[in-house]
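Long-time lurker, first post. I've been practising inverse folding by hand and with some scripts of my own, and I keep getting stuck on stretches where the structure tokens seem ambiguous. Below is the full token string for one chain I'm working on. Before anyone asks, I'm not after the true native sequence, just a reasonable design that respects the backbone. If someone could post their per-position residues I'd love to compare against what I wrote down in my notebook.
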């Protein structure tokens, strides 16, 4: 006996996964990215996302939700359907919460640490309003020592910078998976092991006044006050020199000399007056080649004052020297 038979066709169902931003912190994160991922060969023909209340959200595979807020928190579900009508569903939870309020931070050492032979400590304190957050964090671009690791997970830390320079410490609080903006503390660390004075060389035209600074190229930390003073240059110093505490100076030679004019200076930090450096300044005298100058006085007695007969055009060497 032959009977009619129906054919049963079995199709593969899609295998999908839902991913997305699990936590968003406002203000700041205004977009939520959802993503539907197909895991097998049964390619979905369509995707349908619904929100926490079952409301349609998007028919895209990976939609971007704009201007999200805390009311948008909840479970988001995507249903993928193949051309054969087979479906699969997956969900992802989106949590939108407020970013913690920015904390404050202070230090007990002022704005400057005098690092003596590599030792100098400062206590930093972080503060926040409201209940205790889930965690706090101190970070820095300098290692934290004195028994504390870097980073340190306490409100107060004792820090010992391992180098000189302007060091920034940041205090951040974390709550509900969100991080606050950091509270920053800047500390200028002055290290007595580091040389701060750098020698200078200047060239100037004779019969003019040189206005310059000895401190512009010194190894100084910005924003930290310092004082410059002249080291005695000697009674036979050629000309008039005025050196100001900020490192600027003016110099006018009294006579031409082929030998450079030299003086020395000392520079010290005001906050750490023992942290000083000494530098040498060399000034070379030159002639304006548009003017021929002849020494008005000649006293060749070996005292380095008017010991040379100088004719500037001969000195420069770029004239025909015809006399």
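-- Answer (accepted) --
I ran through it position by position. Result:
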């Amino acid at each position: 006996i032959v009977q009619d038979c129906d054919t049963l066709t079995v199709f593969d169902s899609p295998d999908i996964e839902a991913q997305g931003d699990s936590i968003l912190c406002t203000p700041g994160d205004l977009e939520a990215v959802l993503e539907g991922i197909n895991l097998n060969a049964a390619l979905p023909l369509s995707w349908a996302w619904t929100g926490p209340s079952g409301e349609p959200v998007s028919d895209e595979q990976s939609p971007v939700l704009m201007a999200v807020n805390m009311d948008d928190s909840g479970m988001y579900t995507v249903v993928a359907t193949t051309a054969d009508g087979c479906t699969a569903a997956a969900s992802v939870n989106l949590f939108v919460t407020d970013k913690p309020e920015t904390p404050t931070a202070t230090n007990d050492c002022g704005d400057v640490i005098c690092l003596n032979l590599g030792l100098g400590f400062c206590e930093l304190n972080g503060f926040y309003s409201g209940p205790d957050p889930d965690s706090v964090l101190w970070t820095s671009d300098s290692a934290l020592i004195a028994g504390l690791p870097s980073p340190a997970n306490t409100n107060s830390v004792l820090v010992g910078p391992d180098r000189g320079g302007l060091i920034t410490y940041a205090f951040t609080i974390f709550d509900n998976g969100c991080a606050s903006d950091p509270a920053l503390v800047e500390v200028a660390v002055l290290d007595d092991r580091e040389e701060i004075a750098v020698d200078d060389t200047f060239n100037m035209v004779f019969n003019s006044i040189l206005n310059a600074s000895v401190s512009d190229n010194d190894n100084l930390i910005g924003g930290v006050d310092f004082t410059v003073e002249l080291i005695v240059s000697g009674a036979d110093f050629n000309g008039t020199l005025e050196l100001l505490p900020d490192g600027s100076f003016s110099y006018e030679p009294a006579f031409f000399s082929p030998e450079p004019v030299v003086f020395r200076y000392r520079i010290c930090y005001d906050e750490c007056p023992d942290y000083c450096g000494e530098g040498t300044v060399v000034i070379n005298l030159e002639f304006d080649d548009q003017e021929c100058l002849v020494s008005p006085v000649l006293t060749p007695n070996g005292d380095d004052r008017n010991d040379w007969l100088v004719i500037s055009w001969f000195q420069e060497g770029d004239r025909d020297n015809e006399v």
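A couple of notes from the structure itself: Helices lie at 312-316. Residues 293 and 312 are 5 Å apart (CA to CA). Happy to go over any region you disagree with.
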